[in-house]
Amino acid sequence: MVIGPDGENLGKMSSRAANELAASYNLDLFCVAPNANPPVCKILNYGKYRYEKQKSERMQKRNSKAAQLKEIQLHISIGEHDMATKAKHAREFLSEGDKVHVRVVLKGREMAHQELGEELLRKFVSLLEEEGSVLTVEKAAAWEGKCYSTIVARKTKK
Known about the structure:
Elements: E1 2-3, E2 9-11, H1 15-24, E3 28-33, E4 40-44, H2 46-63, E5 69-75, H3 80-95, E6 99-105, H4 114-130, E7 135-144, E8 147-154
Parallel strand pairs: 1-4, 5-6
Antiparallel strand pairs: 1-2, 3-4, 6-8, 7-8
Helix pairs in contact: 3-4
Protein backbone atom coordinates (compact mmCIF):
# COMPACT_ATOMS: atom_id res chain seq x y z
CA MET A 1 0.00 0.00 0.00
CA VAL A 2 1.52 3.31 -1.08
CA ILE A 3 0.57 6.81 0.07
CA GLY A 4 1.57 9.69 -2.20
CA PRO A 5 3.43 12.88 -1.25
CA ASP A 6 0.14 14.82 -0.92
CA GLY A 7 -1.41 12.17 1.36
CA GLU A 8 -3.56 10.50 -1.32
CA ASN A 9 -3.80 6.71 -1.41
CA LEU A 10 -2.11 5.35 -4.55
CA GLY A 11 -3.17 1.75 -3.86
CA LYS A 12 -1.28 -1.53 -3.74
CA MET A 13 1.83 -1.92 -5.87
CA SER A 14 5.12 -3.77 -5.90
CA SER A 15 8.11 -2.34 -4.05
CA ARG A 16 9.96 -1.83 -7.37
CA ALA A 17 7.09 0.19 -8.83
CA ALA A 18 6.77 2.20 -5.60
CA ASN A 19 10.52 3.00 -5.64
CA GLU A 20 10.32 4.11 -9.28
CA LEU A 21 7.31 6.32 -8.48
CA ALA A 22 9.18 7.88 -5.53
CA ALA A 23 12.21 8.51 -7.78
CA SER A 24 9.97 10.26 -10.31
CA TYR A 25 8.91 12.68 -7.53
CA ASN A 26 12.59 13.07 -6.43
CA LEU A 27 11.53 11.82 -2.97
CA ASP A 28 12.11 8.74 -0.81
CA LEU A 29 9.93 5.72 -0.13
CA PHE A 30 9.53 5.25 3.63
CA CYS A 31 7.79 2.30 5.25
CA VAL A 32 5.56 3.76 7.99
CA ALA A 33 3.80 0.53 9.03
CA PRO A 34 5.92 -2.52 8.15
CA ASN A 35 3.81 -4.94 10.24
CA ALA A 36 0.51 -4.04 8.57
CA ASN A 37 -0.97 -6.35 5.96
CA PRO A 38 -0.08 -5.12 3.32
CA PRO A 39 2.81 -2.94 4.57
CA VAL A 40 2.12 0.80 4.31
CA CYS A 41 4.76 2.99 2.65
CA LYS A 42 4.74 6.72 2.08
CA ILE A 43 6.50 8.85 -0.49
CA LEU A 44 8.19 11.72 1.34
CA ASN A 45 11.38 13.71 1.82
CA TYR A 46 13.11 11.52 4.43
CA GLY A 47 15.59 14.20 5.51
CA LYS A 48 12.76 16.62 6.27
CA TYR A 49 10.79 13.87 8.05
CA ARG A 50 13.77 12.99 10.25
CA TYR A 51 14.43 16.66 11.03
CA GLU A 52 10.81 17.24 12.10
CA LYS A 53 10.87 14.11 14.25
CA GLN A 54 14.10 15.18 16.00
CA LYS A 55 12.71 18.68 16.49
CA SER A 56 9.56 17.35 18.18
CA GLU A 57 11.68 15.07 20.42
CA ARG A 58 13.83 18.05 21.47
CA MET A 59 10.72 20.06 22.31
CA GLN A 60 9.32 17.22 24.42
CA LYS A 61 12.63 16.86 26.23
CA ARG A 62 12.82 20.60 26.85
CA ASN A 63 9.27 20.78 28.20
CA SER A 64 9.64 17.82 30.55
CA LYS A 65 11.09 18.41 33.99
CA ALA A 66 12.43 15.59 36.10
CA ALA A 67 11.41 15.75 39.74
CA GLN A 68 14.30 16.44 42.05
CA LEU A 69 14.66 15.16 45.59
CA LYS A 70 14.92 18.04 48.07
CA GLU A 71 15.86 17.41 51.69
CA ILE A 72 14.51 18.97 54.89
CA GLN A 73 16.38 18.11 58.07
CA LEU A 74 14.82 18.47 61.52
CA HIS A 75 16.05 18.07 65.07
CA ILE A 76 13.88 17.19 68.07
CA SER A 77 14.74 20.49 69.77
CA ILE A 78 13.37 22.55 66.85
CA GLY A 79 11.08 25.48 67.72
CA GLU A 80 7.52 25.88 66.44
CA HIS A 81 8.37 28.87 64.24
CA ASP A 82 11.42 27.14 62.75
CA MET A 83 9.33 24.07 61.96
CA ALA A 84 6.66 26.27 60.30
CA THR A 85 9.38 27.91 58.19
CA LYS A 86 10.76 24.54 57.11
CA ALA A 87 7.22 23.36 56.32
CA LYS A 88 6.76 26.47 54.15
CA HIS A 89 9.94 25.62 52.21
CA ALA A 90 8.80 22.01 51.83
CA ARG A 91 5.42 23.17 50.46
CA GLU A 92 7.27 25.34 47.92
CA PHE A 93 9.33 22.34 46.83
CA LEU A 94 6.18 20.23 46.52
CA SER A 95 4.38 22.92 44.51
CA GLU A 96 7.29 22.94 42.04
CA GLY A 97 6.80 19.21 41.52
CA ASP A 98 9.80 18.05 43.55
CA LYS A 99 9.85 15.27 46.12
CA VAL A 100 10.81 16.08 49.70
CA HIS A 101 13.00 13.84 51.88
CA VAL A 102 12.21 14.72 55.50
CA ARG A 103 14.80 13.61 58.06
CA VAL A 104 14.72 13.86 61.85
CA VAL A 105 18.26 13.54 63.19
CA LEU A 106 18.93 12.37 66.74
CA LYS A 107 22.29 12.89 68.44
CA GLY A 108 23.87 11.08 71.37
CA ARG A 109 21.49 10.40 74.25
CA GLU A 110 18.50 11.53 72.19
CA MET A 111 18.53 8.04 70.68
CA ALA A 112 17.00 6.84 73.98
CA HIS A 113 13.87 8.87 73.06
CA GLN A 114 13.19 7.69 69.53
CA GLU A 115 9.45 8.17 70.01
CA LEU A 116 10.06 11.96 70.07
CA GLY A 117 11.60 11.76 66.60
CA GLU A 118 8.69 9.70 65.27
CA GLU A 119 6.19 12.15 66.77
CA LEU A 120 8.04 15.13 65.27
CA LEU A 121 8.02 13.57 61.81
CA ARG A 122 4.27 12.83 62.00
CA LYS A 123 3.65 16.42 63.15
CA PHE A 124 5.73 17.84 60.28
CA VAL A 125 3.92 15.75 57.64
CA SER A 126 0.58 16.82 59.12
CA LEU A 127 1.73 20.46 58.82
CA LEU A 128 2.37 19.88 55.12
CA GLU A 129 -1.09 18.37 54.65
CA GLU A 130 -2.86 21.23 56.51
CA GLU A 131 -2.56 23.58 53.53
CA GLY A 132 -4.97 21.38 51.56
CA SER A 133 -2.31 19.74 49.43
CA VAL A 134 -2.81 16.01 49.03
CA LEU A 135 0.44 14.17 49.68
CA THR A 136 1.53 10.69 48.85
CA VAL A 137 4.22 8.89 50.81
CA GLU A 138 6.89 7.64 48.39
CA LYS A 139 8.86 5.89 51.14
CA ALA A 140 7.33 4.97 54.48
CA ALA A 141 8.89 6.44 57.61
CA ALA A 142 11.75 4.28 58.87
CA TRP A 143 14.90 4.47 60.95
CA GLU A 144 18.18 4.76 59.06
CA GLY A 145 20.90 4.76 61.67
CA LYS A 146 20.40 7.92 63.77
CA CYS A 147 17.83 9.39 61.37
CA TYR A 148 14.10 8.82 61.09
CA SER A 149 13.07 9.70 57.56
CA THR A 150 10.38 9.57 54.92
CA ILE A 151 9.91 10.79 51.34
CA VAL A 152 6.73 12.64 50.40
CA ALA A 153 5.48 14.00 47.09
CA ARG A 154 2.42 15.83 45.85
CA LYS A 155 -0.25 13.47 44.61
CA THR A 156 -0.54 13.71 40.82
CA LYS A 157 -3.91 13.90 39.10
CA LYS A 158 -4.54 11.25 36.45
